[in-house]
């Protein structure tokens, strides 16, 4: 670790290490709402409260894709109209299985600001003017994406992960036609049916006490929470395949999709994804690589590690081989010294991420939705050794490789 990255990790280390270590304990306690966790950070200048609603685009009505996003944007627009923008703001993320609202507010107004967000989320019906403003803004965003090949690639990627017929695989944004035709009454019915206080989870990070934060949020997160999926060794698919899509485009996109068993702990899978990302992110940058990202998708049939790269067409075969070889290489146990260095890098990246209160709050609220607990990240990271990481790589199933670009050739060496 060197340079600015090392300095940032060192500065954040004290506070963030406490967060990593305390995360699991934060959700415990008799008589507390099981869906709420609080992390007190007395030196912080903002209070961050994230609430996760266990509904997303996979719940969109069959004929109206984009409903979950339009409802959420309408809610966020209404809240923003009611908040003082100099003292508070609301951010929004709509995923396939969940929707997250994050409130950032100064300590003196956060409780009142949360009251506004809670009221609009769970009590007040959708308001016409902010809803229509949100609809217009969403429709405008489509104008810049017409015919964009990356949009087609992303659509094909998610259908490859979740199945072409699964509602989960649909674009969360919907379509211009579906958004234009969505009826306000049906949107309100969707909100009333899916936005339930008891089933939501929430995390508060900032200069607040546990008791005060829980009192402000009650009865959000009272439960019962959704039951975590049963752990087993089943995979989203058993047989890998290569799916070439030839298009007259100037870039090539590669998606290597690895199914993982639900019994594989998420922190181990995140460590594995981090190692793949590090190995595929050379310094100095490879001239044939435009971008590469590695992430975990919670698909309907199980976890999937997604390696997503955009490359120059002439480098596509090389990068396809490199991605597959990188994941295979992690099946071998590393030496203790080499592994220890990489585990510290992973931990440092987690410290930097968790040092951002928005990221910490979202992660903890999602942990409660997925597992009914907040993961104690520091403990879980130190429990991973060379054998556990290699075993995680070995547990991955055969990949599905989606590649879209001009004149696609089989790279060989698979």
Summarize the main sheet.
Answer: 5 strands, mixed
Order of helices and strands: HEEHEEHHHHHEHEEHEEHHHHHE
CATH topology name of the largest domain, in short, is: Cytochrome Bc1 Complex, Chain A, domain 1
Cross-sheet strand order for the largest sheet: 1-5-2-4-3
Q: Radius of gyration in whole Å, from Cα? A: 22 Å
Number of domains: 2
Mean pLDDT: 91
State the total count of DSSP E strands.
Answer: 10
Derived structural class: alpha+beta
- CATH architecture name of the largest domain: 2-Layer Sandwich
What's the CATH superfamily of the largest domain, by name?
Metalloenzyme, LuxS/M16 peptidase-like
Shape annotation: globular
Relative helix content? 40-55%
Binned strand content: 15-25%
Question: How widely separated are the two ends?
Answer: 34 Å
Instruction: Give the low-pLDDT segments.
Output: 1-15
**In terms of quaternary structure, what is this?**
single chain
Q: What is the count of helical runs?
A: 14
CATH class of the largest domain: Alpha Beta
Characterization of the model:
This protein has 414 residues and is of the alpha+beta class. It has two domains: 15-217, Metalloenzyme, LuxS/M16 peptidase-like (Cytochrome Bc1 Complex, Chain A, domain 1); 241-405, Metalloenzyme, LuxS/M16 peptidase-like (Cytochrome Bc1 Complex, Chain A, domain 1, 2-Layer Sandwich). It has 14 helices and ten strands. It has a five-stranded mixed β-sheet, with helices on both faces. Strands 6-10-7-9-8 form a five-stranded mixed β-sheet, sandwiched between helices. Strand 3 and strand 4 (99-105) form a beta hairpin. Helix 2 packs antiparallel against helix 3 (110-122) and helix 2 (67-82) packs across helix 7 (184-194). Residues 1-15 have low confidence and may be disordered.
